[in-house]
Amino acid sequence: MKPDAAETVYDGELISVTLERWGEHAREIVEHPGAVAVVAIDHDGCVTLVLQRREAARRTLLELPAGALEYGEDPLACGRRELREETGLHGGRWRELARFYTTPGFCRELMHVVVAEDVERGDAAPESAEQIEVVRWHVSELPDRIGELEDAKTLTGLLLYVNDSRK
Amino acid sequence: MKPDAAETVYDGELISVTLERWGEHAREIVEHPGAVAVVAIDHDGCVTLVLQRREAARRTLLELPAGALEYGEDPLACGRRELREETGLHGGRWRELARFYTTPGFCRELMHVVVAEDVERGDAAPESAEQIEVVRWHVSELPDRIGELEDAKTLTGLLLYVNDSRK
């Protein structure tokens, strides 16, 4: 699949938009390098979530630690870096759990969800001056508490992790 | 939460981008009216999925029937209309299952997932000339087949439906 023509119609700081022509159809597509979210489980069987201030949603959301990929970057390497920066967690056994498009009707973003089991605690080093609030949920609580979450990657990552554990 | 200033920096046909200023931070946000995805279960215990050509992903994805909300529209009414247009399915018992942000770091889109149980078959009436390919999976297959899916709303909707059924 390849468009007949493509043109950058908005080139911002974080977001750009491409207008593609496919036969008679035009498609406006938000460009994105992809992202990684981490389901990090510690020795106590707890998963770590972070409270994120989300201006687009006009509220704070509870989410998996996550970050955008650099173009060409390995998702596991990106996940390790983001997890340590945001929460201080490091080490453990890592694997890729899933990859999916967050909103494929108009956006190129592919989200990778990786699992890190038996991670160890350490000091966080967030990029911004803001303090990141960390929340821990025991894995056994997930089926009942999942309804408290409102972020697609977090819902999908945790539900897939629980689904996998039940197989 | 309210920005100090906001300005439309791209105004396209389907997408627009707002640049918001929050203190020292600038945020580029893709505007979206929200959307509805439908977990429709028929009398045989099968869920209906549709194959969607997704130019942004450069491939065809298997997804829940879904569509964008009109501003102010009731999600259940939108779900009923989209489901009938795309698949011909109608009737049944409807309820809202969840709502979540598809990618809240840079996009306003709130996705509503609704469930329609005991739906009845009928004739589809898709808006475009393209034929929509419909696929049916039995609900009992979902835990094992979920890894075949690559769309966030579809993964989340089906996993939440299965999680709810297990409670």
Folded structure, characterized:
The structure is a homodimer of 167-residue chains. Chain A has helices at residues 75-87, 142-145, 152-166, and strands at residues 5-11, 16-22, 25-31, 35-42, 46-54, 59-63, 66-68, 93-101, 110-119, 133-138. The first copy, chain A, is α+β, with helices and mostly antiparallel strands and 167 residues long. The first copy, chain A, folds into two domains: 1-31, no CATH class; 33-99 and 111-166, Nucleoside Triphosphate Pyrophosphohydrolase (Alpha-Beta Complex), CATH 3.90.79.10. A four-stranded mixed sheet of chain A has the order 7-4-9-8, with helices on both faces. In chain A, strand 2 and strand 3 form a beta hairpin. The longest helix of chain A has 15 residues, at 152-166. Chain A is elongated and about 55 Å long. Chains A and B meet through strand 2, strand 3, strand 5, strand 6 and strand 8 of A and strand 2, strand 3, strand 6, strand 8 and helix 3 of B.
Entry keywords:
homodimer; 167 residues; alpha+beta; Nucleoside Triphosphate Pyrophosphohydrolase; 2 domains; 4-stranded mixed beta sheet; 3-stranded antiparallel beta sheet; 3 helices; 19% helix; elongated
**Do you know the CATH architecture of the largest domain in chain A?**
Alpha-Beta Complex
CATH domain class of the largest domain in chain A: Alpha Beta
Query: What's the assembly state of these chains?
Result: homodimer
Q: What's the alpha carbon Rg of chain A, rounded to whole Å?
A: 17 Å
Largest sheet of chain A: 4 strands, mixed
Fraction in helix of chain A? 10-25%
Distance between the termini of chain A: 36 Å
